[in-house]
Amino acid sequence: MKGIILAGGSGTRLHPITLAMSKQLLPVYDKPMIYYPLSVLLLADIREVLIISTPEDLPHFEKLLGDGKNLGCQFSYAEQAVPNGLAQAFVIGEQFIGDDSVALILGDNIFYGSGFGQLIREHIDPDGAVVFASQVHDPERYGVVEFDAKRNVLSIEEKPVKPKSNFAVPGLYFYDNQVIQIAKEVEPSARGEYEITSVNNEYLKRKQLKVGLFNRGIAWLDTGTFASLNEASTFVRVIEERQGTKIGCIEEVAYYRNFIERDQVLALADRYGKSGYGDYLKKIVTPVIPA
């Protein structure tokens, strides 16, 4: 499976900060926002990743992440000149995807919790499509998924007045190779965008749409507003300071998924100077000898 991070858009809800830089480059506590969705793809054992962003912002992502070789990965980049909707990612990424299945994750979504890695790895070879579902107290604000006992999706509704469940669909989607052709045939919505909901509804018509259910220990946060960005930073800070571990540390995930070796982690640690991030990387590869 290959992975796509959609990190475009103008971030208007975060103006004036995003007038000068991409939202996905803003800090969420101690890391650029894009580290978090990238770590999710690495956690799913996805090594080939396409980052899609605006022509203005793409060089900054390339400077930050490079070609991915230092993480045992391969990163590619593509432009989305106009934010015309999520489904366009599969058309832009057609050559990158090739004959493979593909995961799409939004660049402003953060996931954390027990069992999350196992859950997403269970769905890396989908026969059709997989959306994920997270229980929320205000489902009317989101896309809402209704499903049966076998995790077959019965309906997906965007911001319904009367939700059929309290499970929202976060910005993480797994598809087989049919998604390229399906995305090409999507018609623009009333707001002129190629909606991911249209792709999911086509899989639903084909009875090929499943749901991966988040347990109560998995947290999903987005960062689309000043308040949610601040909340996400606070969440990450509290967990990291309390547990002494990091969320969204791409080097750590690459090491634990055996993409890179100990010596490579130590070389990466030197990149971060006195930030403390490098010290953390050195710690994770240094054996603890019991007293």
From TrEMBL:
Its EC number is 2.7.7.24. InterPro entries: G1P_thy_trans_s, NTP_transferase_dom, Nucleotide-diphossugar_trans. It catalyses: dTTP + alpha-D-glucose 1-phosphate + H(+) = dTDP-alpha-D-glucose + diphosphate. Its cofactor is Mg(2+). GO terms for molecular function: glucose-1-phosphate thymidylyltransferase activity; metal ion binding. The keyword Metal-binding applies. It comes from the Bacteria. Catalyzes the formation of dTDP-glucose, from dTTP and glucose 1-phosphate, as well as its pyrophosphorolysis. PANTHER family: GLUCOSE-1-PHOSPHATE THYMIDYLYLTRANSFERASE (PTHR43532), GLUCOSE-1-PHOSPHATE THYMIDYLYLTRANSFERASE 1 (PTHR43532:SF1). Belongs to the glucose-1-phosphate thymidylyltransferase family. This is Glucose-1-phosphate thymidylyltransferase. It comes from Novipirellula aureliae.
